[in-house]
Amino acid sequence: MFGPVIDELIDALRCLPGVGPKSAQRMALHLLDKDPRAAGRLSTAIEQAVERVGRCQLCRMLTEATECEICANQRRQPDLLCVLETPADLFAIEQSGSYRGRYFVLFGHLSPIDGIGPEAIGIDQLLQRLVDEDIKELILATNLTVEGEATAHYIGSHAQALGVGVSRIAHGVPLGGELEYVDGGTLSHAFSSRTLL
Amino acid sequence: MFGPVIDELIDALRCLPGVGPKSAQRMALHLLDKDPRAAGRLSTAIEQAVERVGRCQLCRMLTEATECEICANQRRQPDLLCVLETPADLFAIEQSGSYRGRYFVLFGHLSPIDGIGPEAIGIDQLLQRLVDEDIKELILATNLTVEGEATAHYIGSHAQALGVGVSRIAHGVPLGGELEYVDGGTLSHAFSSRTLL
Fold first, then answer.
1. Does the pTM exceed 0.90?
2. Are A17 and B27 a contacting pair at CB < 8 A?
3. Does residue B26 sit in the same domain as residue B119?
């Protein structure tokens, strides 16, 4: 409404996840009116990140170096490898502080309908690592969706054929989750995966 | 967590209104992983906007030209002027399509505690316009807060001294608002401002 430059800014902001027309407008006005210095900083940060961030050659995670900090960290357990679908999953696990091994990020899952085969998500690279390195346990932490399960199954069977131990993270009722509000699929999974005490 | 460039991007995204650490992280990963082309576009759009967007010399609205599209539009009623606190208010009124006059944007409200006096929000410029132009009605559309009301009162009394007609937009129960869910302040305002049929 107020000339092509502002309209373009509002439109460009809508590429961000969870940002609709109203939020984009509010963000644009905030950047222009309240915080032009932050706007300059944001523009530079995006430019720098797009230019300098690539993939780790070992785990495919986003990083500025050839190897990400986790792969380069000698204090990480070298014989534990956790397979994930997205970098966001990696952030979540790191923030929980519950895992001290290394990762492998698929950036997606097997999806033959969309033409996404094993190579597209780096499974060949992953299996090569299982051959080259001395990995004792491969933890499959793909999502509990049809595609995530299929991907886990595919990787799991190939890894077992290479003689590597394979595990799957537990799925069930979340901590603090009240049974009343948990969906049926999760409940039935929690029952079928129950453990003897 | 993954090097200074990504951390700086996540941090810079938090300057956007309504974006906390989790959303900023999701946005950064989206820009880097899923949509690097949109990231480039966004960075350019912000840079361009900060560089080229200034204020309209008549109404103080954000614009790329010396006069904004509304002030330059000859089909707008020239004798109606609406006073607003923020550009977002202007967007909202324009999108409702309920007003065909011109605007004056204060970019704030009177706030002596923060050292914001009449000059800081352009009231001198506004009163000069009332002297120079043939304005029949000044519509006060500042917010119904203590500061907004004080600002409206200040502008209103000065405008009346100049012989200009002054009005205030109506405040009351919103359309579709159920009385049960409307706050007490709004309800008491709706009663005290009731109109005879």
1. no
2. yes
3. no
Question: Which of B39, B45, B107 is the closest to A9 by Cβ?
Answer: B45
Minimum Cα–Cα distance from A26: chain B residue: B88
Residue B40 at interface with chain A, using a CB cutoff of 8 Å: yes
Q: What single-letter amino acid sits at A49?
A: A
B2 touches chain A (CB under 8 A): yes
Q: How far is CA A152 from CA A134, B135, B181, in A?
A: 20, 72, 49
Amino acid at A94: E
Same domain, B76 and B87: yes
Q: Which domain holds residue A45?
A: 4-52
pLDDT more than 90, % of chain A: 64
Asked if the C-beta of B121 comes within 8 angstroms of chain A's C-beta atoms, the answer is: no
ipTM confidence score: 0.78
Burial A124-146, CB ≥16 within 10 A → b, else e: ebbbebbeeeebeebbbbbbeee
CB pair distance less than 8 Å for B65 and A3:
yes
Same domain, B77 and B45: no
List, for residues B96-109, the tens digit of each pLDDT value.
888 999 999 999 99
Residue range A39-68, pLDDT digits in tens: 999 999 999 999 999 999 999 999 988 999
